[in-house]
Amino acid sequence: MTETATMAQPSFADLFSAQYQSLVRLAGLLGADDPEDIAQEAFARLHTRRLRDDGAALAYLRATVCNLTRNRLRHLRLIRLRRPDPPEPARSSEHAYLVSEEHRELLEAVDRLPRRQREAMVLRYWLDLSEREIADAMGVSPGSVKTHASRALASLGKALKEDA
Predict the structure, then answer these.
(1) pLDDT higher than threshold 70 for residue 91
(2) How far apart, in whole angstroms, are the C-alpha atoms of residue 150 and residue 117?
């Protein structure tokens, strides 16, 4: 690798500074109860791993966040099966005021989507990733991304019409 190619790639610290918040947001939108921990774990795994292509670090981080979130959600589902859910906390009037009805309905509809469809929607519309980037992050083919996205949009359209 030439010296100019090395200089073109951001350092680990620069990558962390530039991408940490977006990876926390990604984990949160995918349903993680601990998005900061998920993002930190993704960076820790990147730090201990030697990638063949230095330009693949961001794709590796996104895929790691998706996988860690999936694993965390599976783990939490098993825990919930073994004990009853705690009562939901009361929402403050300030919170109700800040979150519009449409936004709440959309987030609830997204939350009801199957896991893969939810991932495709979050990666596409919240992170604005291409089909190829989404496929890499989810570990599926671009055709599968199209299928998941199409089904998710149809489900969301139906769910939002029913709520209206």
Answers:
(1) no
(2) 9
115 to 39, 119, 149: CA distances (angstroms): 19, 6, 11
Give which of 104, 99, 96, 156 is closest to 125, Cα–Cα.
156
pLDDT tens-digit readout, 41-68? 999 999 888 777 767 888 999 999 999 9
pLDDT of residue 89: 65
- Residue 6 pLDDT greater than 50, yes or no: no
Cβ partners under 8 Å of residue 153, min gap 6: 121
User: Which residue bears the tokens 């936004």?
Assistant: 103
> Residue 148's CB: how many other CB atoms inside 10 A?
24
Structure tokens of 97?
Answer: 């005021």
146 vs 25, 89, 120, CA distance in Å?
A: 23, 37, 9
pTM as predicted? 0.57
